[in-house]
């Protein structure tokens, strides 16, 4: 009996046995079964086909016995031909059953993958920005790929293997007992001799597999970091090519040595299986032959017993490791559910209203902060420890408290005067429609945080943020998204064409509208790009200069046409020529709109209708540029420092 390297038995012993220590609750199991509910009929038919297939496999050796004992020995040619035809029919039926099983397995598996991937993707999109700021992208992608595939196997390959192997063992043992209980007993007594070495080698393979996965993950991380645009630039500016190559080669060499060791154990596994199975067959032939000579068994029965024995040890070995196989797939399901169970910190209220700019009360300010306190959520509120490589998972994930953004904002801490860490402290200001308010202050003052509350990427812990006189907690996220447009200092572009990046703001825009937005954003350079609107801008837009990326982002803003514009250091890190072009584009974008501008260069906001100065999360000054200079406070000091450094430069 041969044991193929890629067979289910061999693969099962490469799994990590540590998963057997995991315990799944009944509630989790019910949820897992809930995913299979839409496929209950295909799964039922799938199991029926597996049962029939297993029955045919056990029945075939009985036909062998009949051919020898009732056909060949008595010389009944017609019966031999008839039984041979029956064998051919069984083979055809088994082949048809196999195709049916594969088709159903594919439909069930691919359907589950689709359901899980779309649910995880949709849910992850709803999570707050704090989730993405803490989560390792690769680990999250693994949940959408590896764990989803592992979960899918629970209802396809694992289910098929468990049911098929169980029924095969039952049918085969029943057939063997019906022919000779003595031979059957000896076969089962030899089972520990067969399974024990397999389990020992399996543990070795599991340890080697874990080590190989760790080494390959390290190599993958190295390539991910070094082969991105920013990583490649850092390596070229600071790195040593020889050192980089040596480090990568060391990892590759470790993978090579692990691969050789794995191949050695795999070869020992296959050789051991073949050897023990051959010895078992020899014992059965010896005992069966002795019983046949004594007239207790026929030759056909001995042949049938040996054939059945060959069908017995593989399934029994696989079933001896079934806990690992089942728990591996169910743990993958649990890891997917862990993501789905993380509630969004920012979500629409049950009866959220749509913000309609033109229908709002005319006297209400466009933006209003009313005694706003804010602190960023704790790690356990915002994300999962298993998705953060620097934070160990909790010992008891079920006991982890998960914060609710809406609830925390309504209740707040008992005493704002005794906070853990507040980013904003009792902040109040108003931005009338059509006006510009600038937020300034030293680094870490809370300026960018305030802008994130306007677009409701975060929600106030205490106090209210209002748009057109309406608390943002009572508005739909979609309507806020339509009303508020943001341009940050790091304009992000997708690795796609310029056209796709612009259409992201307004998918229905015509080519003429795209070019008009580019002209208004002072992005006429797009005419000179190799493929015009179809030019691929590269990873994060790195094929364009910083000023060009900013102007593309402004063109995208103009296509969106929001009523409120938030500019977060939109001209930071630009040279004088690029800054001038971007400032002209921003003037076009802000015309007739309400704007909240965060600026490090105070010279760019001298014309603001109102300037609010933040320091350590508090409003310390407010007024116009002239008023704040005359007051001689923090704003005047910041302006003096910038003016002095500019003059010196």
Fold and architecture overview:
With 649 residues, this protein is of the alpha/beta class. The chain folds into two domains: 8-340, ABC transporter type 1, transmembrane domain (ABC transporter transmembrane region fold, Up-down Bundle); 357-389 and 403-648, Rossmann fold (3-Layer(aba) Sandwich), CATH 3.40.50. The protein is 60% helix and 9% strand. The chain is built from 24 helices and ten strands. The strands form two sheets. A six-stranded mixed beta sheet has the order 6-7-8-3-9-10, sandwiched between helices. It has a four-stranded antiparallel beta sheet with strand order 2-1-4-5. Strand 4 and strand 5 form a beta hairpin. The radius of gyration is 35 Å and the shape is elongated.
Count of the separate structural domains = 2
Name the structural class: alpha/beta
Overall average pLDDT: 80
CA radius of gyration is 35 Å
- The CATH superfamily label of the largest domain reads ABC transporter type 1, transmembrane domain
CATH topological fold name of the largest domain: ABC transporter transmembrane region fold
**Largest sheet, if any?**
6 strands, mixed
Number of helices: 24
Keywords, please?
Rossmann fold; 4-stranded antiparallel β-sheet; 2 domains; 24 helices; single chain; disordered N terminus; alpha/beta; ABC transporter transmembrane region fold; 6-stranded mixed β-sheet; 649 residues
